From TrEMBL, chains A, B:
InterPro entries: Flavodoxin_fold, Flavoprotein-like_sf, NAD(P)H_dehydrogenase_qn. Its EC number is 1.10.5.1. This is Ribosyldihydronicotinamide dehydrogenase [quinone]. It is found in: Cytoplasm. One of its GO terms (molecular function) is dihydronicotinamide riboside quinone reductase activity. It comes from the Eukaryota. It comes from Eudyptula minor (Little blue penguin).
Amino acid sequence: PPGRKVLIVYAHQEPKSLNGSLKRVAVEELSKQGCSVTVSDLYAMQFEPRATRNDIVGCLHNSEEFNYGMETWEAYKRGGLSSDLIEEQKKVQEADLLIFQFPLYWFSMPAIMKGWMDRVLVQGFAHEFPNCYDSGLLKNKLALFSFTTGGSREMYAKGGISGDIRYLLWPMQHGIMHFCGVKVLAPHICFAPEYASEEKRKEMLTAWAQRLKTLWKEEPINCSPEWYFK
Amino acid sequence: PPGRKVLIVYAHQEPKSLNGSLKRVAVEELSKQGCSVTVSDLYAMQFEPRATRNDIVGCLHNSEEFNYGMETWEAYKRGGLSSDLIEEQKKVQEADLLIFQFPLYWFSMPAIMKGWMDRVLVQGFAHEFPNCYDSGLLKNKLALFSFTTGGSREMYAKGGISGDIRYLLWPMQHGIMHFCGVKVLAPHICFAPEYASEEKRKEMLTAWAQRLKTLWKEEPINCSPEWYFK
């Protein structure tokens, strides 16, 4: 709907890839709806995934023993985080919906996107004890994980060799997004596009565009073990 | 036992941290046993976590559309991977046991270590269809995930707010290690050391040294959904 803000965090090296096309489809469809869409293209930005002392500008709270979580928390409070983090946090703060678009690497997101989570979702900004899970600081936002897999739908079925695809969503959806208070929409999964025909790949893009048309009417998943493991 | 080779992949910024101490304890105890121990200290090496075109030396197989998995597979076969990857692969190849030592970041390993998985465990080296899972190319090796958490043991219990700690081990142990044929020993978990007394932290170090004494007699876990989710 007009006025809604969307941040797409996108991690693929190749604009011509299916992930690149899925990202473009989302930008087009959501813009058509009147949403304002921002993209963080992590590889293009050469986003830094490593959590280091460079993330804190100026003096450390405890320079005797470097504690990343503590130092970024303190730096956040005094406005002393590095500028690339502040920029990403602003985008998150403004967004109603976060879409993560990536190829599944080793049952999870690529390291460059994991680094975005590690560095951007700082204590004080995204959560602050006891404000986590349903009272996380990013509540009232939605998130959606949209990804492609190498393995087939059959491999990721409940009895399949790689186990139910939902098993691997737990750390990303519950462990990160739900922890920060974000409500999670059902994932969007394109299985094994590398082994699909050109026609099937086109169908995948159409299906995504179609889903986005009614996305804002969707209910979040029940982010409890029942959804993931039963 | 004398002659066994161990690779410790270690991801903490601060040598004085508990993770730093756990790593040192492992080096000491295993060396005392006569093992040959190698450490990949990822932050000290400024290890690159991003999977990019830089990982391939020379021409691409398909320069029209960059496909990281395909390109690194081809590069591996012709000896054209970047030298930092070749070096890590040599260490893996020689090791009987891989120990991953890290603080849990967002229900998973820090991005710098995820990048090690993404970039080092290349198709052709670690797996090659249909050689995955029990026939993965790194079979006859053992792996052990040793990590510290922010949350308490109670939070990570079955009925706890963060769910059973085993849920989040699935992508790392089954999705990565088991996929490559590596057998997985029970994880070693230090819960919430930041909130523990100095005495409790010392006990954590002693317990780890103690476990290492009989490590080679341990049986791997049953790496199936039953172990993780029941």
